[in-house]
Design brief:
Two copies of one chain form a homodimer. By secondary structure, the first copy, chain A, is α/β, with parallel strands linked by helices. In chain A, 34% of the residues lie in helices and 26% in strands. The first copy, chain A, is built from eleven helices and 14 strands. Chain A has helices spanning 10-20, 72-81, 96-109, 124-135, 151-158, 174-181, 190-193, 208-216, 234-240, 275-295, 317-323, and strands spanning 2-6, 26-32, 47-49, 62-65, 86-87, 113-115, 139-145, 148-149, 163-172, 194-202, 226-231, 246-256, 262-272, 300-302. In chain A, the strands form three sheets. In chain A, strands 3-2-1-4-5-6-14 form a seven-stranded parallel sheet, with helices on both faces. A four-stranded mixed sheet of chain A has the order 8-9-10-11. The first copy, chain A, has a three-stranded antiparallel sheet with strand order 7-12-13, with helices on both faces. In chain A, helix 1 crosses helix 10 (275-295) and helix 2 (72-81) runs parallel beside helix 3. Chain A is globular and about 60 Å long. Chains A and B meet through helix 1, helix 3, helix 4, strand 13 and helix 10 of A and helix 1, helix 3, helix 4, strand 13 and helix 10 of B. Strand 13 (262-272) of chain A pairs antiparallel with strand 13 (262-272) of chain B, so a sheet runs across the interface.
Chain lengths: 325, 325
């Protein structure tokens, strides 16, 4: 399959690396809104101007759109789905139905297929929620995130006066995880599920007590959590917090039997050294499925819930049945 | 959807209980090869003779076949797939391609759909192996089973002279699990991955040392494992080992990045109080998918790798996108 990348940030770079690991995938190029000559790719793949993308219509089987969910993807994906089979990682849960409707209408205009929200949450975590809740009909779902860097929360801290740099980690509370695993179906508040850790480089002479207070009381972002603030040096930030790890847990506990006498725990865990590279790896696998479904004549917008697992694998159905089932 | 159960052992009883938890499912009846009047169901659902099943052809949307994999299912599923949409939990991994071919040909004769091997391994574990290996292309897969009762191994111990009753637990080795999770891609021998625990009720006057030795040296079943044998009383067996718990882990670790510099761990865990009831719950969810696919005109044999996750859920695609994605 011939893939192309639209947007070349951390996620686009991750897709570039992931394609190298998949012998059935080939990278046509990177499309950027910046001046192409200013962009240097990791593997030397060619860079084109986003404006010229229609010229490459016939050369691309699936276009992987690597933009942000706040403003990029809601605009980009519907436009590009008119002329390409596309995959994105749109992750604003509340706006998925709206994004789906826009992309579905656009993709159907010229018989294309699109897959939205194909990262890990939404994405792989979503499918685990659906599998688990479909099997254990009488039960409760829990999703925990972390330990990992939240870019949105890091950005929020950086906007505080006197903050030079910041990194925010979301941390699941081990005690809450244990309660959930026990099958006791606990009702957990936001504060009980996750804590937040902020590593902050303050500007010289800045009032650290004020910064700490502003962080801890910030509405929506921190006020409902127990937050710990650590002031560190620029060197420490560079040395210890340059990576973007993440992960989390999807757990469902449920009961079966004539009177619910048996308990079951389904637990799915991700532990990721690099959030963007893992997301990118998922996008490439789902691009494979989208390409196959397009060849079978499927059109319109899909989500990971519409994709049969076998379509993600480079192995044939016969190989999968013989070796993976 | 109107379901029926073919075969009424532990698994069939589990399906009966699972149907109660799914308001969109209705149980037409239980079909048995025994004399129907000798079979009493848990919930009072009607019992019919297996010989009469063709009379109920139009009343059943999906027939869930609850037989053993050694001799029952290879014979039953192809025959029944000619006249019914069927689901089974065939679990002899090595014979899946052959079973698939037989069931596929039979199902296509009259436009039916069949799903084979829809338990947890093969089944849910299989899909996790496929998802994880498709996403992390450069990595290694590990499956661990337990702690749980292996019926096959329990039966093998029961066949030893002087053994009145026995229960065998397969136990994953915690150290091996930790090595795998560390991402070090260890090569593990059979002995390093699992231990075996046998609880044995010996007949009065039986030579316990001989029994223990016969267990530990039994080819294929025990000789490649570290096995511990505990002799217990009949009362202890009844009190402490009446249940059929099971579970296990599917773990894939892999690398991403330009030079494989980032490591990732995907871990899926099941912890089940009742192996047959959990398997039964999976069968009912997959029966829902099969019923929907039949309504869309899909025919032939499928495995869990061919089923889109959304088809398993009682929720509509719109509800899933709004609430579960």
């Amino acid at each position: 399959m011939k893939l192309a990348i639209y947007g070349y940030g951390n996620l686009g770079k991750g897709v570039e690396c992931a394609v190298k690991q998949n012998p059935d995938a080939e990278l046509v190029g990177v499309f950027t809104r910046r001046a192409p000559e200013t962009v240097k790719t990791l593997t030397g793949v060619l860079v084109y101007s986003a404006q010229d993308i229609l010229k490459y219509k016939d050369a691309i089987d699936v276009l992987i759109i690597c933009g942000g969910s706040a403003t990029d993807l809601p605009a980009m994906t519907p436009v590009l789905a008119k002329d390409f089979n596309v995959v994105d990682s749109f992750d604003t849960h509340a706006r998925i139905p709206e994004h789906f409707a826009n992309v579905d209408a656009a993709a159907k205009e010229n018989g294309h297929i699109a897959l939205i929200s194909a990262g890990w949450d939404p994405g792989i975590f979503s499918l685990n929620r659906v599998y688990a809740s479909s099997i254990l009909a009488d039960g409760a779902d829990y999703t925990f995130w972390g330990r990992g860097v939240s870019q949105g929360h890091s950005d929020a801290v950086r906007r505080i006066d006197g903050v030079k740099d910041a990194r925010q980690y979301t941390v699941p509370v081990e005690k809450a995880l244990e309660q959930v695993r026990s099958g006791s179906n606990p009702t957990l508040t936001t504060r009980q599920k996750h804590t937040r850790e902020c590593y902050v480089v303050a500007e010289e002479g800045a009032d650290r007590a004020r910064i700490e207070n502003e962080i801890k009381t910030m509405p929506n972002y921190f006020d409902e959590y127990d937050t710990t603030v650590y002031f560190i040096s620029e060197e420490e930030m560079k040395r210890d917090h340059a990576e973007l790890p993440h992960g989390g847990f999807v757990i469902r506990t449920g009961k079966t039997g004539l009177n619910g006498e048996h308990r079951h725990v389904i637990e799915y865990r991700l532990k990721l050294d690099s959030n963007p590279e893992f997301t990118a790896s998922a996008l490439v696998a789902f691009a494979r499925a989208i390409n196959r479904m397009h060849e079978r004549g499927v059109t319109g917008c899909k989500t990971v819930l519409d994709i049969a697992p076998g379509d993600l694998s480079p192995l044939s159905p016969e190989e999968l049945r013989a070796h993976m089932l």
